[in-house]
Amino acid sequence: MGPYDSLDQCLYCKEPRHNADGKPRQTFKYTPLIPRLRAAHANKARAQQMQYRAQEHHHVPKKTTDVFDSTHYRDLLHSKVTVDGKEIPYNFFSDSRDIALGLSTDGFAPFKKRKQTTWPFIFVNYNLPPDVRVHMGNVMEAGTIPGPKKPKDADSFFFPAVQELKQLEVGVVAFDSLSNSLFVMRSFLIRVFGDIPAISMVMRVKGHNGTRPCRLCNIIGIGAPGTKTLYVPLDRHNLEFGATYTGPVQYDAASLPLRTHLEFMAQVHEVQNSATDAEERKLSQKYGIKGIPLLSTLSSLSFPTSFPYDFMHMIWENLIPNLVLFWTGQFKDFDHGEDADYRLMPTVWEAIGEVCGASSRTIPSAFGAPTPNVASEKYQFSAENWSFWTLYLAPSLLKGRFRNARYHKHFIELVQLLNICLQFEIKDEEIETLQVGMIKWVQDYERYVRPNSGCIFAYMLLCTVDSIIVLTPNDSLLAPSRFTSFCILREALSLLVQCGLIGHF
Question: What was the pLDDT predicted at 265?
Fold first, then answer.
């Protein structure tokens, strides 16, 4: 099945498809989605649980508590379904039994001390209540791209899933155990989430290392003097630009150049329809887009707003560790200088690390996993460790440790904003607080920490908050699913263990 079904060799590595004995060199197994959704409706207990979207969740204006409060979902309620360019005479979610789906993918190495990776992709049933929708028995693992490296063409593996999703947009016959009758079952994919490399692969964009590093906006990355890494400072007045730079010297943090669906789709078609390879490379670099993503054939998704940044990866695995690297003078290839007042003295940092390592003796295990020594055992830190360290340990441990107190104040302002993000519900006035607070924090970050070398993960805070209402916040900002990608990856690993494909971990 798919566009490469009849090929005898790989388009990329030119290796033959089959071994000498005629058997496939590698296989990809896909578990169909439709039979599982049918089975869910046929089971009375599960069908009752799936009434959450239509019956239990009540949208309260000016308050965000779940994916169904996002403007993307609310707009879909008043929009016609479109399949292959043809408008269908019914709206999205016009039936109370219509199912809202999320899709997650990520790469992981199933074996220790090996670099081979595999890429599971998993569906989340948003019709289930938030507190159970990512439990092991409720997520639906559809397939695992076998590896051993990141797939060159992920769309070829997503092809059977997209074919099913297109069927589900039209509708398939299913049995409703609650009414004891047949009905037309429909389901719509409304958001896709994962870390930046995974979503860049799905969206077919360049990613955070490209000239256009942000998938939500059109900011242009630039190289800081003496470094090989691209950065995204808002203020660029004091920078020396190359001859090819045509961007602004100042970005307005309150009015970011956000991408729109129409603009994005026009650009992907322009890249895809390039007359020559040279033109394609030029346009791809200009827009940060590689081609038409297969998921764009689903009218329930909006590019790029249906692909929000994942809170866990953006904050706990990138922004906070990068701040620590700044404070300890180890961030990338910058010459931080011993006299930089944002640098913590080595003895101070070692003392902080010792206190972190000893904290588990007095903190009950119910609060989370033990915190390793942040100075000597930072490599052991997980997203959970960084979260606990940031929210509960660091505010006290860093107080009075910087040579300039403004850096501690700056960090506390971030913690206050993160605590708002992690609430179970966010009011509109709190979103406004986030917008103002994040703008100030990023601007102070540029002035305080490293002028003219804005960190892409700090900048992404602006893009995320600027479109927080448009995005589906449940998996990107709110507490019920703040570790959704981590949980889903864990469930995928558990499934592989149960199937005997990998050992216990």
Answer: 96
* CA–CA distances in Å: residue 21 to residues 18, 26, 193: 8, 13, 40
Q: Which two three-digit tokens encode residue 102?
A: 């999320």
Residues 437-455 pLDDT 10s: 988 988 888 887 655 455 6
What is the C-alpha separation between 189 and 166, in angstroms, rounded? 10
The four Cα atoms 141, 146, 150, 152 give a dihedral, to 10 degrees, of -100
Number of other CB atoms surrounding residue 333 within 10 Å? 9
Adjacency order of strands within the sheet including 187-193: 140-145, 119-125, 99-105, 187-193
With 0.85 as the threshold, say if the pTM is over it. Answer: yes
How far is residue 373's CA from residue 331's CA, in Å, rounded to a whole number?
A: 19
Place of tokens 């995974």: 198
- What 415-418 contacts at long range (C-beta under 8 Å, 24+ apart), as own/partner pairs, is 415/390, 415/391, 417/441, 418/315, 418/390, 418/391
Q: Map tokens 């869910």 to a residue.
A: 40
Using DSSP's 3-state secondary structure scheme, residue 391 falls into helix
Q: Which residues partner with 258 through β-bridges?
A: 217
Continuous segment of H or E residues that includes residue 100 = strand 99-105
Which segments of 303-405 does DSSP mark as H helices, in order? 311, 320-327, 346-358, 383-388, 394-397
Neighbour tally for 270: CB within 10 Å: 16
Helix (H, G, I), strand (E, B) or coil at 282: helix
Between CA 53 and CA 97 the distance in angstroms is: 9
